[in-house]
Design a protein that fits this description.
The structure is a homodimer of 453-residue chains. By secondary structure, chain A is α+β, with helices and mostly antiparallel strands. Chain A has 10 helices and 18 strands. The longest helix of chain A is centred in the middle third of the chain and has 21 residues. Chain A is elongated, with a radius of gyration of 24 Å. The interface between A and B is large, with 62 and 62 residues. β11 of chain A pairs antiparallel with β11 of chain B, so a sheet runs across the interface.
Chain lengths: 453, 453
């Protein structure tokens, strides 16, 4: 970049030569098979919730090897309930920690950057329904299959190999760059919350979630609940003397569809959400009820999530949800025969965010996108994602502009998850060029530390 | 009894003196606190499925102590699928065995008898919802509380203490009497099936299930199923690309209510079932679905039971059930988007039975009932039970007349299960007088072995 001060946020292009830019892109190409091998190694780790230790050890080694300052960061549960970036925790974090790798520049003149990616993955469903075992990374044509391949170990590899390519091109970033390898994105966001609460900050964060190479303009706030319904157990010979907790729970879920519809209707008054299908998306993820095949179930518990719009406080939506359940408990003829259902908040409770158009960060990314692809091709598209993203925490609780942009992936959270490798390559290149423009570079060979490009 | 041959089935009264009859009744009264203590000891054992060893060891010791020939009888799983009394097994029976105690008479001239009771109990539900811990037998007024107190450890105590009272009155039964302390009644009936398949037979079986001191005239056949529905998992950001296995399962359960209604409608054409509320009683006992709070569930499994009428083959009803599920799978717009639901048979698949009015066994029981209570009081009532009973196996597969008659109990399979102790005392007396009349007796002091009363 030019010698402009980091905070100047100039949209002007760096004086990086075309040849130097080409060298970076070539370096991505040259290391790409190594990148796929690294990604495969990550996919091989079944880093389900609470089981992220193995993958984080790989991350730690990979960052050490590259000369980053590496910190293993435990989640300080004392902060939960204190710091607003945290959501309720229902499990121990003893074996779940973040890994933070930091590039400390010789010359610090550019804009600092956080590259965030989460290592936790969701369960696979029945492995027999997969073409290949879900934790056996399998390459078929342009696709790499495996749980977590798209969401979002590919993104993690992009962040690391983008920075590698810059170095391989003989360049050195002239601003602090942190790699946040975090846990818990799929449930609470408490990994990213910890990274944030520890005081880690930067001028921008880029998160290569699988976005089909689009930039996220806005996302939903999400609250995750567990509802427990108690019934009155009974013997099948006298069914009418009991109230099935299962039937009451199903009735309650039916009613909750009305809450979803009501929240969905608000989309017309909210920027960006006009065309989103089912922005509130009530999904019931799990249900467990009853304990004996021939008894009327005494209790039933279901867990799920519901979305809402950026700008809304999750606390208000939680209250609305609880009041809705209380009304059903009072009015529905079946549910009213049960004790009042218990609502618990068991995962993320966070607002959504928007990335206002016209930011410097977006403009640098859009140019990098063009430079990494065909300069005369289509521009970077923006879109809305009706799901929780760790980006929300960085934006809402720390005011850091968040760029969520990553590769094409399919079947995330589903069977036969896969990521497009050609897309991953393009994304890696875009991130490399973005980092160069955002952070600035100097020639690593240059003896004069002030010799910034 | 008189010197009539055992097979003569005479309804005439024995020549047992009134004083001797009173001595038996008095012996029940005198031992009743001991009986309650024994019952409490049984209730203290959490003899859930697969955990019956402790209670069976107590039973074994109790029968040994009384001089019965005692046999520990393992379930021979090789017979399952071969002998029609067995239902499918889904668990190991390594720690679940029957205990068979046999009284071998010095003089065998009367009619033989099986007293059957099951020791397995169903789960408690949330123990905190009980007034007292469910496996802490608690006496309050006329009631003894505890899981299994009514269903059916009280009945077990009645069988044992009825025979004790006869002995205490100085009498000795002149026919073989077996006590079948069986497992698995609450799920498959495979305990009683084993007792039967081992060749144990008798001229009648009496089972003191909690029937409110009524005699069971007929009961339902029952089949127990598990249905697994697979959906298409998806991320909440693209709900419509998935099919929730949970929603499909709930839809399927809704449709099954129509099958229940159709089977219930048949009641008008079936003897004894006219006035029974919900004779088919489809109950869904358990449900488990999904594996992640923020995924569209990929699978959902529910278990339940449905009843039908005596005389019907369970195999026919199973076929009808399977065909019904297949039709829903083909026709319902949501369920048809899933692979065909898997129906498994995971518990009892047995026909119901009837006890034809006018049997000798019933008439002897009815007289014993009057003699044990007030002779001028109401007669023994008969009723229908729309639930599985081990009695069905003895009747249907071995042609043994089955008398199911036992104490008043409340909240079986529910919270705060309890049995009436005054009722238990009456039932114990009735069983004692029944056994005397059915099997015949001689005075234990009599040196002449042929001196039958």
């Amino acid at each position: 970049m030019t010698n402009e001060a980091a905070n100047n946020r100039s949209p002007s292009r760096s004086t990086l030569s075309k040849a130097e830019r080409s060298r970076i892109l070539l370096a991505v190409d040259e290391a790409f098979e190594k990148q796929v091998a690294f990604l495969s190694e990550l996919v091989r780790c079944a880093s389900l919730r609470g089981q992220e230790a193995e993958v984080q050890e790989i991350m730690e080694a990979a960052l050490h090897e590259r000369g980053y300052l590496v910190d293993r960061q435990a989640i300080d549960t004392a902060l939960i309930g204190q710091h607003p970036a945290f959501s309720p925790a229902t499990v121990s974090y003893e074996n779940s920690w973040n890994v933070i790798g930091t590039h400390i520049p010789v010359v610090a003149q550019g804009r600092s950057l956080i590259l965030n990616a989460h290592v936790d993955v969701v369960p696979t469903g029945d492995p027999d329904r997969w073409q290949d075992p879900p934790f056996k990374p399998t390459r078929r044509g342009d696709w790499l299959y495996g749980r977590g391949s798209g969401d979002m170990k590919a993104g993690m590899s992009a962040a690391i190999f983008a920075l590698d390519a810059i170095k391989a091109a003989g360049l050195e970033l002239t601003a602090s760059v942190q790699i946040h390898s975090v846990v818990e994105e799929e449930i609470t966001g408490n990994g990213a919350a910890m990274a944030l609460a520890s005081g880690q900050t930067a001028d921008a964060v880029l998160i290569p979630e699988p976005t089909d190479e689009k930039l996220i303009r806005a996302n939903s706030g999400v609250i995750k609940f567990a509802v427990t319904v108690h019934g009155t157990p009974a013997h099948p010979r006298e069914v009418s003397s009991g109230v099935s907790a299962l039937e009451a729970a199903v009735r309650l879920i039916d009613h909750l569809r009305n809450l979803e519809a009501r929240w969905n209707e608000e989309q017309n008054t909210r920027p960006y959400f006009n065309d989103v299908e089912n922005p509130a998306a009530l999904t019931i993820g799990t249900i467990t009820g009853g304990e004996w095949i021939a008894s009327v179930p005494s209790s039933c518990r279901f867990e799920g999530r519901i979305g809402f719009y950026p700008g809304d406080k999750p606390q208000d939506r939680m209250k609305e949800f609880e009041a809705f359940v209380a009304t059903i408990a009072a009015d529905d003829p079946l549910v009213q025969r049960c004790p009042e259902p218990l609502v618990q908040w068991v995962g993320v409770v966070q607002p959504g965010y928007t990335l206002a158009p016209g930011s410097e960060a977006e403009s640098v990314l859009a140019q990098a996108y063009l430079d990494a692809n065909a300069s005369d091709g289509p521009s970077l598209e923006a879109c809305v994602m009706a799901a929780y993203l760790d980006a929300a925490l960085y934006t809402v609780h720390a005011g850091i502009p968040s760029l969520v942009y990553g590769p094409i992936a399919e079947k995330i959270h589903a069977i036969d998850e896969r990521v497009s490798l050609s897309s991953l390559r393009r994304v890696t290149k875009t991130i490399a060029l973005f980092a160069v423009e955002w952070c600035g570079v100097r020639r690593a060979s240059d003896k004069n530390p002030a010799a910034v490009i």
